[in-house]
Amino acid sequence: MRLCRAHRLLISLAVTGLLVGCSNRGPKKEITVLLRMMNAQEKFFKEQIIPDFEAQNNCKVSVLTFNNEWDIERLLKLESSKKEPSIALVKTPFELTRVLVSKGYLKDLYSVNDSDQVKQDLAEYHQLASGLGYFDGLPYYLPRKLETRILFYRKSMVADAVSKFEKHRNRINDELKAQNGYGLPAGYSLESDPAQWDFYDLYVVGSIWANEEYNGVKMGRIAHRGARYGGTALDLVDKSLQLGATKDDILSLTADKNVSAYVWERVFVRNGLYNQGMWQESWKGENIYNAIKDGKVFLTNIQQIDAFLIHGWKDDPLMSSYLPQEDDMGLAVVPKAVSFELDTAGMVVFEGTRSISTGGWWWGIPKTAPDAKLAYKLARFITSREMQAKECSRFGMVPVRKDILNKLPQVFDQGWVGDIFKVSVEQITLNELTTVPLVKTYAELSQNVIDAWYGLCVEYKETDGEPMNFATMKMRLASDYLDKQKEVLGGDYPQ
């Protein structure tokens, strides 16, 4: 039987329609996202973001987590040896963005999607966030969040220290005189507002807390991360940057501004201002949260998300507060850096800044990704206005989208939530374009920075005739750690 042209066309259209209709019912594409998040945030990510994307794109998204940032490179290297690699999208910390690109692990986004479309997409993000994802003129990353550290303190404990300053003034002055040759800076007074503090103010309140009994115990009640991982290295590098160290100063290790950071760290350890749990228990972020909860830490530098997690949400059992009193959380930009050394008139030898590094996290697509286009779509979906507003308001991430950053008061509550965003954006503004050194061996460099901190600040035992002052610190950095620094950096070591 012959079919007329019209009938043949109808059958053809029907078959085509059937095939199209079945496409969404066909085998699901499967991809894996490599990431690290706090438990509550990971749960939110899996339950509030991924399912919507899976439904819209007929796919299955699995989540693979890493513990240490430095594991990312190891896992991507392993992917390259697999017959069927699965990792399609990688949440990458700023410190490793250049490393992964320079070692050839990631696709540039122009090879994934139309370049005009990529440019249009990237224009939706803050220029700093999108700009830091470019290398050699090509975009390799879609921004996830900007990140910096801010000062966290318990308001009640700061007020307590201020009220007790005169009681401790003479002791603190004598303690410092034995170490800097003068004592407290000339004309010193303790500011009640932490937003006005410098490093000497930080020392004074820390000394008061360490020498007063709280809950029947004396201990250091200032902390930063102390585990041998990237977070601790970042805290140490930030201190150097505050003191005015350049990228080359940090890389050279023995530059004066970098040495000064180690001197201050030694002073805080030696005089018992730091909580010893930092190194004895290898503290990371959650360890500090628990120390705040237990009344062991009154002050620390934290990221925005840390502030959210410490404060907590009353209606979320996975985000219960770590604060003894919810309204006791104080936030400020970081203290102004000054030299520990004073001149004969009791003035600091130099002043630093309140500027530390801006970093964050970016989404990168491995060269071995099983479906790079789907991975790109997922990264864009995660950072859509709807999804980012939802996630940022829940966990305190500094957003990267212009349509949110430019309307913060309209998007987020103006209570404690608004305070976190306000101070965080203020700190990022102070930072300007300050970042950690962008070298391909940053991970190895970080390990040497931490080793030097442990060796010269934490574990160092002073002997007669060799107090750990500026000169000794510079000498020991050169004798004990400089060769390793040069080996790690190779051609990147400043000449």
Give a topology summary.
Elements lengths: L4 H19 L5 E7 L3 H19 L1 E7 L5 H9 L7 E7 H9 L12 H8 L4 H5 L2 E2 L2 E2 L1 E7 L1 E6 H9 L1 H16 L18 H12 L11 E2 L6 H13 L4 H6 L3 H15 L6 H4 L4 H9 L5 E5 H8 L17 E4 L26 E6 L7 H11 L2 H11 L6 H4 L2 H4 L4 H16 L10 H17 L11 H11 L1 H8 L6
Parallel strand pairs: 1-2, 1-3, 8-9
Antiparallel strand pairs: 3-11, 4-5, 6-11, 7-9, 7-10
Helix pairs in contact: 2-16, 10-12, 10-21, 12-21, 12-22, 21-23
Give an overview of the whole structure.
- This protein is 49% helix and 11% strand.
- By secondary structure, it is an alpha/beta fold.
- The protein has 2 domains: 26-147 and 359-412, Periplasmic binding protein-like II (D-Maltodextrin-Binding Protein, domain 2, 3-Layer(aba) Sandwich), CATH 3.40.190.10; 149-356 and 438-492, Periplasmic binding protein-like II (D-Maltodextrin-Binding Protein, domain 2, 3-Layer(aba) Sandwich).
- A 5-stranded mixed beta sheet has the order 2-1-3-11-6, with helices on both faces. A 4-stranded mixed beta sheet has the order 8-9-7-10. Strands 4-5 form a two-stranded antiparallel ribbon.
- Helix 12 crosses helix 21.
- It is globular.
- The relative contact order is 0.15.
- Residues 1-24 have low confidence and may be disordered.
Which terms summarize this structure?
D-Maltodextrin-Binding Protein, domain 2, 23 helices, 11% strand, four-stranded mixed beta sheet, five-stranded mixed beta sheet, 2 domains, 495 residues, alpha/beta
